[in-house]
Write a structure and sequence with these properties.
With 235 residues, the chain is an alpha+beta fold. The protein has helices at 49-59, 131-143, 146-151, 174-187, 205-213, 227-234, and strands at residues 4-13, 16-25, 28-34, 37-44, 69-75, 80-85, 100-101, 109-110, 155-160, 165-171, 196-199, 218-220.
Length: 235
Amino acid sequence: MKSKIDALILKVSGDTIDGAVDEVAAELPVRLVLNGESLVTLLCTPSELEELAVGFLLSEGLLHDRSSLKKLSVSGAGPSINIEIAGLPKGWEKQFEKRTISSGCGKGITFTNYDREKDRKVDTRSPVMTVNAIRDQLGKFRTISTLYLETGGVHSAALSDGKELLFFSEDIGRHNAVDKLIGKAFLKGVSIENKILFTSGRVTSEIVTKAGRNRFPILISRAAASCMAINYAED
């Protein structure tokens, strides 16, 4: 599946309007099927779909360790991501009856929100980054996405050890990009509890919840933060 497609657009230059063919970011509805039950349809860039599913379930608190992941596959032209997890708590389906419209531009849905009682505090004593190191890695991060440079229509997320950018993911949705990155690290067996999360998007409460729940000690973005994101980060 392609991450970009050619589309007919109207190009405006001064007072002139002409038809033109341009490359745009692909967007596709992808169904997530958990233990045989259709859970949610994610609107996303059709790449790294297995990573997206795993990251989504990690962020929602249903997947915790590699041993509980029994099956993971992508099928159909739709497509569907089929995942089987062992040891789900009794009545886990009820968690998905309460939905929150997220702050994503596409009005995405999240099922679990930050909970002061359940979400543990993160040890932020290490690693440490200097301001110059942050500037250097932000400079690399901003130019690493070829798809963004070609279409201008995707968000990016990257995993850093404080010295180098280790993994990178992109998607039309900033939440999806972060979930893809989290899922990629999980499937590759790389711990993120001592790593740094870079994101190109606004830092809202959902992004901070994803970062905290997955134990990132540091979250960095050039974009603005919301008041709830700041409160959650302080907690």
